[in-house]
Amino acid sequence: DGVTEVLAHRSDNLRDKFIEIPCSEDYDSHKRFEGCTPRKCGRGVTDAVISREEAERIRRIAERGLSLGGSDGGASILDLHSGALSLGKHFVNLYRYFGDKIQDIFTEEDFALYRDVRQRIQHRIAQAFGISSSAMYLTKPTFFSRMNSTGAKTTHDEYWHPHVDKVTYGSFDYTSLLYLSDYSEDFGGGRFVFLDANSNKTVEPRAGRVSFFTSGSENLHRVEKVQWGTRFAITISFTCDPEHGIGDPVL
């Protein structure tokens, strides 16, 4: 594995940490959008965009939604946009499956908070990469994840493999993660790892921490297996292509 360096410790309170790295060629095989498609690439971590209290409120949204289902393996997802929810070894559409009961689980305030958080993260990314926030569009999939130490039952549960977001989802240009629980307090393992040529750079999750990066091969990454406890996060991704844009989820 070479050298492992911690980019962000759980105990740090980072206003803004940003590291610029050369862009990969991944963006060349897609249509370029001037003023948005990455020309400056890199990765950043901030604890100054979302408060711990807001992260806790968002985690409760995730907990309520995921309590309706959950994977048999160690990784469960909830996508408020498409309605995808892990259930056993499969996925169901939350909105079709539970119908009007959804009104008892989520509130308008939940969705307003989600939208507000998404906007703040979008502005922070735009600022870091010197692009216009209005040139970026939310794209799918954008989802909550809950991970624990249960063994994988299907390939969907195997979240720990190295991957490149732009290769996995062609529409992604900028990826962000908002952590909703604390490394070494709520769970062990489960750190986020950037896999660079000569070293690994890790981010230790803490509630309210936002990690963001350009989605190409310059940011090959993986998540360590969770050893104990439960890790909650939300992945929020952006595209420069308006055709791949999606609206915020509505109740």
UniProtKB/TrEMBL annotation:
It comes from the Eukaryota. PROSITE patterns: FE2OG_OXY. Pfam families: 2OG-FeII_Oxy_3 (PF13640). Keywords: Dioxygenase, Iron, Metal-binding, Oxidoreductase. GO terms for cellular component: membrane. Its cofactor is L-ascorbate. InterPro entries: OGFOD3, Oxoglu/Fe-dep_dioxygenase_dom, Pro_4_hyd_alph, Pro_4_hyd_alph_FE2OG_OXY. Residues 140-242 form the Fe2OG dioxygenase domain. PANTHER family: 2-OXOGLUTARATE AND IRON-DEPENDENT OXYGENASE DOMAIN-CONTAINING PROTEIN 3 (PTHR14650:SF1), PROLYL HYDROXYLASE-RELATED (PTHR14650). Gene3D superfamilies: q2cbj1_9rhob like domain. This is OGFD3 protein. It comes from Dicrurus megarhynchus. GO terms for molecular function: dioxygenase activity; iron ion binding; L-ascorbic acid binding; oxidoreductase activity, acting on paired donors, with incorporation or reduction of molecular oxygen.
